[in-house]
Amino acid sequence: MSDGYEWSALSVEQADEWAVLVAAILTADGIDERYTAEQLVEELTGAGFEPSLDTVAVRHRGELVGYGRVRQRDGLNDGRVRIFLEGGVHPEYRRRGIGTALMSRLEDRARAAASERNPGVPLVFGASGGLEGDPVRPMLEARGYECVRYFQTMRRELPGDRLPEPAVPVTRYHPGFSLRLLAAHNDAFSTHFGFAPMSELEWQHDLDSVTFRPEGSMLSVAADGRVEAYVMTNCFEAGTLYISRVGTIGSARGRGLARACLLAVLRGGVAAGYRDVKLDVDSINPTGAGALYESVGFRPDKLFATYDKRL
Hints:
This protein is of the alpha+beta class. The chain is built from nine helices and twelve strands. It has a twelve-stranded mixed beta sheet. The longest helix is centred in the middle third of the chain and has 20 residues, at 98-117.
């Protein structure tokens, strides 16, 4: 890689130019998502996250042209530490070796972070392979990563086809449900690919996000107060509701509870004036979630690859 590049860490003060860089990367990669500076700042403030150690910023003549960060969850996945590496390079600066140098730095930090928090525990690196044809895939494969999963983005226009009323009662989320909802989430996702149980600190960080929409999130609550099923929503871009989590605890599956919550969320989205709603689903989800979403009008949109590297 040629000279003239400066390597440092991301900081809150760089959020505006970071948002500009991310928008340029997503546009070049054919992804129609956008993130505000405020949303990106939240990515630097999670529990156990140290921006000075866990991020990388690449500058060329003062301009931010690349970034990276590592994310390590508190819990283990199948007895392993799974650390997700993410980042990108401005399209005008690609094919100069910046991405390779970024990944080397991120992997070095991931090894150190895993050693600090979970010494002696087997380690897995995870990374997004983007859409078909993304130039990141050959780079990942050259570094020993393998494609292990595909995630399907699905979309539904609102109001769209008529939505029936939920067949069972549902309850709107409020903060009093926080810990019960966390327990339900850790139960519901315990058998899912790449899942590590969330800690209370990690969970609260997500609930405190400026993108979380509690008024659009619905729960199915048992007579004893347990949350049995839920749909949680966020909003990352005006007019689009994003369904971030859908789950049913193992003992309550097969009763239509998640479907009832989903219908309530969609009907609420129509009433709130959203123009469409999106979600992501594991293409081989063990609970058959894709069929559920299609039954209420969602249609496949884009397919993203996930890569892993076991050490």
